[in-house]
Fold this protein.
Amino acid sequence: QVNTIAPMALIRTFLPGVLRAGHGHIVNVLSMSAHRPIPGASAYSGTKYALNGYSLAARMDLVDTPIRLTCISPGLVKTELLESAMRGKEASGKVYTANSHLNPADIADNILYTITRPSHVQIADIQVFPTNLVAPPTSK
């Protein structure tokens, strides 16, 4: 529900006010798994695919408005989420040691870049992952 229902509900709740204001920018944070599923994480990947599809449709609904909608799809980011999912720092630490990763500030920088573009510029999607990867790994 956090990955799909909550963003949809928030957009539905706040969109009328944003439309009345005559400007605004919706940023949905997806994941690279919205584009390339992660083995062993089918439910997570499915929720991110769902939010991506919703965002595409919502962008179509907003096409005749001044409201922009951007999706940011990060690869592996060093956060407490993985630690919680893997039930401990030791297991998550091994993932970060074995794989190149981004930091939360990297994602915040991309969001800031997106929302500060001129109003006639729509950045639909950003896929961001470490420089030394062709694409984020999808295997366990």
